Each structure stands twice: as C-alpha cells, then as structure tokens.
Amino acid sequence: MKHLVISLLIAGSLFSADIEPDKIMVYKKTDQAELTMHIFNPEGHKSSDKTPCIVFFFGGGWVSGSPSHFYPQAEYLASRGMTAMCADYRTKKKYETSPKECVKDGKSAIRWVRENADMLGVDPNMIAAGGGSAGGHVASATAALDEFNDKTDDLEVSCRPNALVLFNPVFDNGPKGYGYERVNDYWRQFSPLHNIHKDMPPATIFLGTKDDLIPVSTAENFKAKMKEFGKRCDLHTYKDCVHGFFNKKKFYETLLEADKFLTSLGYLEGKPTLEK
C-alpha cells in the first residue's frame, strides 16, 4: 500500500501538486450545468469490489469553491483502501443559485453513489459524507434535513450517509448562526443543528477554538443533541486555530483523526499510513 507524503510549506500552508482523480463522472444534469464527481479509487480497484466510500463537499460559503478542495484527503483515503469522491455542486458565484441548490445537489450526490454502487464498486451501506465549512453544512444536511430534495431525484434512494466527517462545519443557520440573512425564510428546515433526529449517523467534528464563524459552543450543542438520541459524535478542538485551519497547519492532525474514526467504524483497516 502506498504512503502519501504531505509537504507542509511556507506559513503552514498546504501545497499539494499534481493530485488528479482517477476519473471524473457526471452525477447530475441541471438547468445550469452538468455536475461532476471526482473519484479516487484504491489501487487495483474493480467495479466488482464493495469498498467503503466517502463523498467530500468543498467549502466556500455556498458562494464559490472547487472539488479540488479535498483532493489531498481523498487521495490519502484512497491509498488506505476507500473509494473517495469530491463532488461539484452549484454555487452562487458560478451559477447564480441559492443555498437551497447546494443541499439539493449534495443529496443528489449521495443518492447517485448509492444508486450506482455496483458500477462504482462501493458498498451502498458504507457511504460517509465529509466537508468543510459550507461543505460541512452540505454533508450534515444530507443526513439531517428532510426537505430540499431535487425534483429529478429518486426519493426511494436514501440520501442519508452512514457516517459524517466534518471540518469546521456550518451547523447553525438560526438567527445567531451562519448565513441566516440568506436563508431566513427557511432556516428552521435548513439548519442541521435544528433537525437532528434518531436516525443520524455517527459523526466526527474538527474545529479551531478561534474560529470566527463557527463557535465551539455550536459544535458542543450539536454533540449534545446527538447524545440525546444516543448517537456518537466525536468533537476535536484545536487551540488557537481559525476557520479553514484543517487544510493548513493542522492538515496532518485532522486527517489522522479522521482515519482513526473511519477505522473504528470498519471503513479502513490497519494503522494510518499518513506521514508528515
């Protein structure tokens, strides 16, 4: 099994050169564009396999962003034996769409993976969703929200992932939460923190203590509500780290903990192979 070596360069920024997915496939056609899934497969992967899978959603405030945001994490997890995917979804800057479309596309992405599991060589019952910031909102929304389903989706196929891996995620869209002014007409149905239920999957959360967008108390509230339903929710906080820290100076530490979480669920086997 190959080892992925990450170079941490100037000012603690992560530089990942020449990372390319194994394939890019269209998972959804919309009025604005075809949306693609960027797929990283384990070495020697075949369509007849049934590997665990994770789908990552990029951050960018529902405004901008790129699937390449999570290429480094996806490449590493593929090297550990998972199929890892990075989903494109509609954003305001590129497509003039609202936050609703972000969630609709996130749900469509999970449904597409589950519906095409045999072709993709993945286990439809071992699909994790991951994301950072607004992408963390999209990932958690696929698990928590009942509404915001695309009219073209087959609603008989579940959009609910089997695990969540969340990096400084947007949980609270209420009056004191993130993005309220953009979603105030429908925030109660849109905010994952306010829609936790008995069928939530296990989750792990990574958050900096000096995040100016997501207070630690918000993640603590999410964890407490998960606990009320008897659901696992691991919370990892990182002293003095700001928003977006996970792709900078704490890339190694957060990905290592994500590896341990996924291993505990049976998605990965053996010890982490991540190297600084």
UniProtKB/TrEMBL annotation:
Domain of life, source organism: Bacteria
Keywords for this protein: Hydrolase
Gene Ontology terms, MF aspect: acetylxylan esterase activity; triacylglycerol lipase activity
InterPro entries: AB_hydrolase_fold, BD-FAE-like_dom, Dienelactn_hydro, GDXG_lipolytic_enzyme
Domain Dienelactone hydrolase: 192-251
Domain BD-FAE-like: 38-152
EC nos: 3.1.1.72
EC primary class: hydrolase
Ribosomal protein is among the record's keywords: no
Family to which this protein belongs: Belongs to the 'GDXG' lipolytic enzyme family.
Name of the protein in question: Acetylxylan esterase
Organism: Sedimentisphaera cyanobacteriorum
Gene name per UniProt: axeA1_1
